[in-house]
Design a protein that fits this description.
Largest sheet: 7 strands, mixed
Distance between the termini: 35 Å
Structural class: alpha/beta
Oligomer: single chain
Number of helices: 7
Strand order of the largest sheet: 5-4-3-6-7-9-8
Number of strands: 9
Strand content: 15-25%
């Protein structure tokens, strides 16, 4: 990978993330043909917003069963979201599940976990009680042949490039979360609205979608989430945070962190052989 990002968190901790600086033309060809998806090899805006917002979000990871927070990241890619959470919440113990449907992304995630001491070794970060880096296809609820249930928190950063991915993601969260668990989505409105949702697609010359379109995508996500018993408790926007260099560009892009509480019943399901 041709880029290593150094990310400083507000508690003074520093994270190193090996990543791809940009997708190459070959990456784009492979993606269009369904051969290989390298999107998980980059650090995207939603993950950077997540790092900035951790002081506002850290309370969701505290005071869970036996003092251990059972947390899963969906579409982990480089692993930045989960790694930053564990490093920032250094006094909170975690059972951490970092998941993706891409084998190459999971390999990169393993590299970045090692770079940042995210392991079960007490000689490393020290607050990871168990760590699983595993393949997960949204909608199945099966984690490398094993089930994981009654999670406290599920996180996802910048994973909705196709609006059709939202219901399978919600189905996965519904299957893994405990009742009153939380789904935290760091979202940048990149996706197209479904064809049956009317909205003008005339975009301004600066490349950002108009605010009305950003709002329409956000409203659509909130409406579909209700069908899966997820209630949006709060929305954290870049302008709500302490000043940081990318704040204005993130606001202009419509980036936000949507905080959902699962109001359904925790599901019981067994592992498949």
């Amino acid at each position: 990978h041709d880029d290593t990002k150094i990310i400083k968190l507000s508690n003074g901790k520093t994270i190193k993330i090996a990543a791809t600086a940009a997708l190459s033309p070959l990456d784009m060809i492979d993606l269009s043909w369904g051969i290989r998806d390298a999107t998980g090899h980059r650090v995207w805006m939603g993950a950077m917003l997540w790092c900035q917002a951790l002081p506002e979000l850290s309370s969701y990871f505290r005071s869970h069963n036996g003092g251990i927070c059972r947390c899963m990241e969906l579409g982990t890619g480089t692993g930045l979201g989960g790694i930053a959470t564990a490093v920032f919440c250094e006094n909170q113990q975690f059972d951490l599940f970092l998941t993706d449907n891409s084998a190459s992304a999971l390999e990169l995630c393993r590299v970045n976990c090692a770079l940042n001491g995210v392991s079960t070794s007490e000689k490393e970060l020290g607050n990871i009680k168990s760590l699983r880096i595993a393949k997960l296809e949204w909608g199945t609820g099966i984690l490398d042949g094993n089930s994981a249930s009654h999670l406290d928190v599920i996180i996802a950063t910048d994973v909705i490039y196709d609006i059709a991915a939202w219901p399978p993601l919600l189905k996965t969260a519904e299957r893994f979360l405990k009742s009153s668990g939380f789904l935290l989505l760091s979202h940048v409105p990149r996706a197209e609205l479904p064809s049956d949702v009317e909205f003008s697609s005339n975009f301004p010359s600066n490349g950002n979608r108009p605010t009305q379109y950003q709002d329409a995508i956000e409203s659509y996500l909130l409406r579909i989430a209700q069908d899966f018993d997820f209630k949006c408790n709060s929305i954290v926007r870049p302008k709500d945070l302490n000043s940081f260099p990318e704040q204005q560009s993130m606001d202009d892009a419509g980036a936000a962190i949507l905080v959902f509480e699962f109001q359904g019943m925790a599901q019981k399901f067994s592992a498949q052989p």
